[in-house]
């Protein structure tokens, strides 16, 4: 499998480390119910199909990336800098 | 006051001057040990990339290379390392004097002159040699003079930039990996016959 890093171009997946699902967002630690924290820390979906996940280009530009990958075929349809994805989630700040 | 400390080449104890590997014909690869090079990482402060580019252009005559590029004039200039990060290169450490002061507030500058081991790879089989270890397409259509990559060679993190179309490449690895890296480089180059330009300074 190869991943097309938006900065470095297409690279062997051995240059990257996998973190996991990019969807979970950390609840506010002081406000959150224990159940919400438990969900954030432990519970993950395991879809057969499209999955948005975090990869780290440690052997290259050392950027965190959000990779959209089909778990059945490993076909990658999108790779975006995680920084842009995080910014686009914040209200009032564009990517 | 004199110092008991003397500079030692990053390649000392590993690289030997002279002709090695396949003995027939002209050497396919030439390895030039590059000691004493001035190096510094330049990391732009958030939102200061344009200001950084302007100061580097005004004060040093350098232009900021984009992703996967290097802008070098002779032995001086910048090599892209990561988003918002570059490696400043000069023929000697003194060549980077004033850089940190000039960039105060717009970028973090950290001297790396003693932190990397650099070797210049040239000769008619330079591309063939590196293709054996670099998982980046080095075909001239994909990688030409002025291009740079951060990748790994033999599981060792390496930064590589192409200087000219000959082709000539500069390779930088963390200094503590110089011995392991030389082990790969010398074995990979042996089939082409290679020449090391001079003895590493002890
Ligand atoms: Zn990258």
TrEMBL record, chain A:
Record Pfam families: SoxD (PF04267)
Tree of life domain: Bacteria
Sample GO molecular function, one term: sarcosine oxidase activity
GO biological process: tetrahydrofolate metabolic process
Protein name per the record: Sarcosine oxidase subunit delta
């Amino acid at each position: 499998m190869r991943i097309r890093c938006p900065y470095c171009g297409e690279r062997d997946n051995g240059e990257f480390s996998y973190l996991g699902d990019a969807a979970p967002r950390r609840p506010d630690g002081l406000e959150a119910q224990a159940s919400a924290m438990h969900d954030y820390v432990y519970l993950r979906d395991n879809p057969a199909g499209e999955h948005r996940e975090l990869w780290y280009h440690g052997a290259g530009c050392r950027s965190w990336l959000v990779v959209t990958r089909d778990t059945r075929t490993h076909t990658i349809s999108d790779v975006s800098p995680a920084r842009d994805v995080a910014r686009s989630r914040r209200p009032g700040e564009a990517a | 006051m004199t110092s008991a400390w003397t500079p030692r080449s990053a390649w000392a104890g590993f690289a030997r001057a002279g002709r090695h590997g396949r003995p027939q014909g002209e050497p396919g690869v030439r390895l030039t040990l590059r000691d004493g090079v001035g190096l510094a990482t330049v990391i732009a402060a958030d939102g200061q990339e344009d200001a950084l580019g302007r100061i580097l252009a005004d004060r040093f005559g350098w232009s900021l290379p984009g992703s996967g590029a290097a802008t070098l004039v002779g032995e001086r200039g910048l090599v892209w390392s990561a988003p918002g990060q570059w490696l400043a290169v000069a023929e000697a450490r003194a060549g980077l004097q004033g850089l940190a002061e000039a960039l105060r507030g717009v970028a973090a500058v950290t001297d790396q002159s003693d932190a990397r081991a650099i070797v210049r790879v040239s000769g008619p089989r330079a591309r063939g040699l590196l293709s054996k270890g670099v998982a980046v397409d080095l075909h001239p259509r994909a990688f030409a003079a002025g291009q740079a990559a951060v990748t790994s060679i033999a599981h060792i993190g390496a930064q590589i930039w192409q200087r000219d179309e000959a082709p000539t490449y500069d390779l930088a690895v963390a200094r503590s990996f110089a011995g392991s890296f030389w082990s790969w480089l010398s074995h990979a180059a042996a089939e082409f016959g290679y020449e090391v330009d001079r003895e590493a300074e002890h």
